[in-house]
Design brief:
Length: 326
C-alpha cells in the first residue's frame, strides 16, 4: 500500500496554486514523486505540508446491518486523514478482520483486542505499522468472544475502551474503529468510547431498519450513562441513476428522526472500493482523480471539520508574497 495525495488536491485545500506548492516541496526537499504531469506525496511530506492542528478524536463506524461499507469507509477515511498528515490508528474489532486484511496485515502472529482484555497484552505490543503515520490494531476470529470476555470479567462498558483510547490520543490525531454488524457489549463499549459514531446506510429496501436499531441502542446508552454521543449518518453506494437510491435519500433526509444526523457528504457506488481491496491497495494508491477519492475526501473533511485555517502557518505564511507561476 502506497497512498498518495496529488499536489493539485493539496494545493486546492490550502488555497494556493499547484506551482506554488511544488516550489515549496522542492525548497523544503520533501519526498515526492513526479510523473509527466503529476506531483504527489505521501504522509511524510503531507505532515510538513499541512501541519494540521486538530483536537485528537475517535470515530467509529457502526450499524447493525452487514455490508453497508463500515470497513470500506473506515479504511478510506483513515488513509485520507493520514494523507492530510494526521497520525492515525485503525482499530479493527470485527472478528471477520476485513479492515486488517485491507491493510494486508496477518493477524495470526499479533495480539488482538481479545488478548489485551483477557491476557493482559499491552496496546503497544498489539499495534502494528502499515504505512508511515498509519497504525493498525488487527483483528481475527477470536475477537468473536469480546462480548463474553467483557461480561465474564465484568469490565465497565464505559471504561473498557474509553480509557485506553483516551491514552492513545496522546500519540494519534485520529483513532478509527471498525465494528462488527451487531449491538453487543463490545460495540456498546465502543459507542461509549468515541467522539462520533458514523453509520453508513445503503440505499436499499430495509436500509433504515438497521439504522433504527443502532440509533435506539445509542439513545439507550446515552440515557444510562448520561452522555451525548453524536451519530452521523452517511449514504454509501449511492447511484444517481437508481430510483431506489433517490428514494432512500429522500426517506432519510425527509425523516425528522434522521435529518439532523444526515451528513452532506455521501459516497457513490464505485468499483474502486472492491477493486482496491482485490489489488491489495487503497483507493489512494492511484493518482487518477476519481469520484471515490472525491467522496472520501468530502466525508473526511466533514467528519474532522478540516479546513486550511487549522494549518500551522510556519512553512507557508509567505504564500501571498510569492512570485506567481500561473
Ligand atoms: N461505495 C461503494 N461502492 C461499491 N462497493 C462498495 C462501496 N462501499 C463498499 N463496497 C463494497 O461492499 C462490500 C461490503 O463493504 P464493507 O465490507 O465495507 O461493508 P461492512 O459494513 O464493513 O460489512 P460487514 O458488516 O460485513 O462488516 C465490499 O465488497 C465493498 O468493497
Ligand atoms: Mg466490515
Amino acid at each position: 500500500m502506497d497512498p498518495k495525495i496529488t499536489a493539485k488536491e493539496a494545493a486546492e485545500f490550502l488555497g494556493i496554486s499547484s506551482r506554488q506548492l511544488y516550489k515549496r516541496i522542492l525548497d523544503a526537499e520533501l519526498p515526492h514523486t513526479k510523473t509527466l504531469s503529476t506531483v504527489a506525496f505521501g504522509y511524510p511530506a503531507a505532515r510538513q505540508v499541512f501541519r494540521l492542528n486538530i483536537k485528537p478524536q475517535t470515530i467509529s463506524f457502526q450499524i447493525v446491518k452487514g455490508g453497508t461499507g463500515k470497513t470500506s469507509l473506515a479504511c478510506a477515511v483513515a488513509i485520507r486523514a493520514n494523507l492530510y498528515g494526521l497520525r492515525v490508528l485503525c482499530v479493527d474489532l470485527d472478528q471477520q478482520g476485513n479492515l486488517t486484511n485491507s491493510f494486508g496485515v496477518d493477524a495470526e502472529s499479533l495480539p488482538v483486542m481479545i488478548d489485551i482484555l483477557a491476557e493482559g497484552y499491552s496496546f503497544d505490543e498489539a499495534i502494528t505499522r502499515v504505512a508511515p503515520g498509519l497504525d493498525v490494531l488487527a483483528s481475527r476470529i477470536e475477537n468473536a468472544l469480546l462480548d463474553d470476555v467483557i461480561k465474564l470479567k465484568r469490565l465497565k462498558l464505559d471504561e473498557v475502551y474509553r480509557l485506553p483510547f483516551n491514552k492513545l490520543k496522546e500519540k494519534y490525531d485520529l483513532i478509527v474503529v471498525d465494528c462488527p454488524p451487531n449491538l453487543g457489549q463490545s460495540v456498546a463499549a465502543v459507542t461509549l468510547a468515541v467522539d462520533q459514531v458514523v453509520a453508513p446506510v445503503v440505499p436499499e429496501n430495509y436500509a433504515i431498519s438497521g439504522l433504527k436499531a443502532t440509533k435506539a441502542a445509542i439513545q439507550e446508552l446515552q440515557q444510562s450513562y448520561h452522555v451525548t454521543i453524536p451519530l452521523r449518518i452517511t449514504v454509501n453506494k449511492y447511484d444517481p441513476r437508481a430510483v431506489l437510491s433517490q428514494e432512500a435519500l429522500k426517506i432519510i433526509s425527509g425523516d425528522s428522526e434522521y435529518n439532523d444526523e444526515l451528513m452532506h457528504a455521501y459516497v457513490h457506488a464505485s468499483t474502486e472500493f472492491p477493486n482496491a481491496v482485490a489489488r491489495g491497495e487503497s483507493i489512494f494508491d492511484t493518482l487518477k482523480a476519481t469520484q471515490a477519492k472525491r467522496d472520501i475526501d468530502q466525508l473526511t473533511r466533514e467528519l474532522l471539520q478540516l479546513d486550511s485555517s487549522q494549518c500551522e502557518p510556519a512553512v507557508f505564511i509567505e504564500s501571498h508574497q510569492e512570485e506567481s507561476f500561473a
